[in-house]
Structures are given as structure tokens and as C-alpha cells.
């Protein structure tokens, strides 16, 4: 029986992949300078302009997806009798997944048959996107809903995220670090390295001095931790720095031979938190 894959706009997949796999998307919203914008995977959202505003020092806030939005999204498939898998943004980073679960409970009170599986990917950005992409490939190849749910649950903690933030002052503006830490970090040219842990929470992993060293750190850690590379893609995400993403791709290909490497910019929801210049590498490896 056919089924529908749904994810949210924090997966940051390129629009062409969303359309290729007929993924349905639940959209986050972003507020910048008092104006609310919809993260629509680049259909109408001007990411370049948004990234430049971040580069100039503007800050943006994001809002979790509410229960009503999930009800509207899921209800259509319930009424059609079409099974659904929802692959959601880490519950440690947003309350959105809880909203999805509440929406499912409300639908189960209204309808007799609700074939809806909600999965916490414990991932974000193109780490979530990589898991969704490889799940979509398996669906495209004919994997059943039950088998795909099992595969995702069995493999989701094998997806690694290596993240560096270039604009440490952006973390201060967003209230994520103190002014003192930001000033010292800027003077020393410190670049934080962040990962997602087993719970799907962003945690500090290391600090290096200088942009080139931070990019090399991501490359080295990816090479060290990658597994079964010939069967999996590597994703590289960035905020307004495609030339750095190309550099990382070239250096990775000198050491490893993944099935493919896909480069894509972050969506605005994630970029609002990382700031301009952030870059990440996502790959399949040993369980976190």
C-alpha cells in the first residue's frame, strides 16, 4: 500500500529533492525585524537576501509549529485513508514534535483509523535532511511503510552532524553566549565546533582558532567517523559560503568515496540560529 512521507522545513533539503520524492512539508516561520516569514523550502523565500541580513547583524527568531498546522496537514491523509510517516525535527531543539503528537491524539479521538507514525529524527538541518533523503530513496525502491519505519529507527543515530559557527557575535546577539565570551572569542578568532548527541541535542564538542582550521576539523572528523561510505551520501550545508562548501567537498573526496556529495544552503529556520558563515558536514557512521 502506498504511503506518504512528511517532514518539516528544518530538514533543509533542496527544493528539487522535495519535489522529486513528493515530500509533504510542514513549515516553520521566522520573524526578522518584526516581519513574519514562512520557511517554504525556497519556493518563494529569498535565502540570499536573508543570509545577507544576518551578515549585516540582524537577528531573527523562530516559532515552533503549532498543533493546528499539524492537524491540517495530517487530516487530509487520514480522510484519504493514506498511511503517513512523519520524520520530525529533533524534539530536543523544538516543541514541534510534541505538537505533532498532540495532533495525532486529537485525530485518533475523531477517526477510527489513523495510520500515522511520528518519528523523532533526533537530527536537524541537513542531518535531518540526509535521513529523510535516504528514507525517500528506500521508499522509491519499494520498501514498505513498516520496513521503512524500522529502518529509520534502527539507523537514525548513525547519522552524524559536524557544525562550525563562523560569526560568534551572532551567538551573542541571539542570547546563546555572553557578551564577554563573544568578545574574547572574537579576539582569539575562536570557532566553536558543535555536534548533535544521542538525544538530538546540540552540544559543544571543541573549539579551534581560525576558519581554515575549523573547516579542516569538520573534514577530519567526518573522515574518521564515516562508515559504509559507498552506500550513503554526504551532505554539506552552509549559510552563504558556497566556496567554503566546495573546498570541504574537494578535501573530503581526497580521503573518502561516498555514494554522492550534495551541497545545499541551510534553510532560514536553522540559519537564524547559526548566523552567516556557518558550515556543516553530515554523514553516516557508527552509532552516536
Automatic annotation (TrEMBL):
Keywords: Coiled coil, Lipid-binding. NCBIfam families: DegV. InterPro entries: DegV, DegV_C, DegV_domain_contain. This is DegV family protein. May bind long-chain fatty acids, such as palmitate, and may play a role in lipid transport or fatty acid metabolism. Residues 90-117 form a coiled coil. The keyword S-adenosyl-L-methionine does not apply. It holds the Pfam family DegV. SUPFAM superfamilies: DAK1/DegV-like.
Amino acid at each position: 500500500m502506498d504511503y506518504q512521507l512528511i517532514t518539516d522545513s528544518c530538514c533543509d533539503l533542496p527544493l528539487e529533492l522535495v519535489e522529486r520524492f513528493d515530500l509533504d512539508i510542514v513549515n516553520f516561520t521566522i520573524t526578522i525585524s518584526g516581519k513574519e516569514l514562512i520557511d517554504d523550502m525556497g519556493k518563494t523565500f529569498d535565502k540570499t537576501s536573508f543570509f545577507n541580513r544576518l551578515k549585516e547583524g540582524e537577528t531573527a527568531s523562530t516559532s515552533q509549529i503549532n498543533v493546528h498546522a499539524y492537524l491540517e496537514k495530517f487530516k487530509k491523509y487520514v480522510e484519504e485513508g493514506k498511511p503517513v510517516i512523519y520524520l520530525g525535527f529533533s524534539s530536543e531543539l523544538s516543541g514541534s514534535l510534541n505538537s505533532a503528537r498532540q495532533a495525532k491524539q486529537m485525530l485518533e479521538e475523531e477517526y477510527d483509523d489513523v495510520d500515522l507514525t511520528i518519528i523523532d529524527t533526533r537530527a536537524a538541518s541537513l542531518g535531518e535532511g540526509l535521513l529523510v533523503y535516504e528514507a525517500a530513496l528506500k521508499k522509491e525502491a519499494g520498501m514498505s511503510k513498516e520496513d521503512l519505519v524500522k529502518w529509520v529507527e534502527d539507523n537514525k543515530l548513525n547519522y552524524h552532524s559536524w557544525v562550525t559557527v563562523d560569526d560568534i557575535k551572532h551567538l551573542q546577539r541571539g542570547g546563546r553566549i555572553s557578551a564577554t565570551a563573544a568578545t574574547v572569542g572574537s579576539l582569539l578568532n575562536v570557532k566553536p565546533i558543535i555536534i548533535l548527541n544521542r538525544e538530538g541535542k546540540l552540544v559543544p564538542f571543541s573549539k579551534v582558532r581560525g576558519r581554515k582550521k575549523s573547516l579542516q576539523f569538520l573534514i577530519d572528523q567526518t573522515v574518521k567517523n564515516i562508515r559504509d561510505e559507498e552506500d550513503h551520501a554526504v551532505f554539506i550545508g552552509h549559510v552563504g559560503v558556497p566556496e567554503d562548501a566546495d573546498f570541504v567537498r574537494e578535501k573530503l573526496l581526497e580521503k573518502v568515496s561516498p555514494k554522492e556529495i550534495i551541497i545545499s544552503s541551510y534553510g532560514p529556520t536553522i540559519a537564524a540560529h547559526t548566523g552567516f558563515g556557518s558550515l556543516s558536514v553530515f554523514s553516516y557512521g557508527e552509532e552516536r
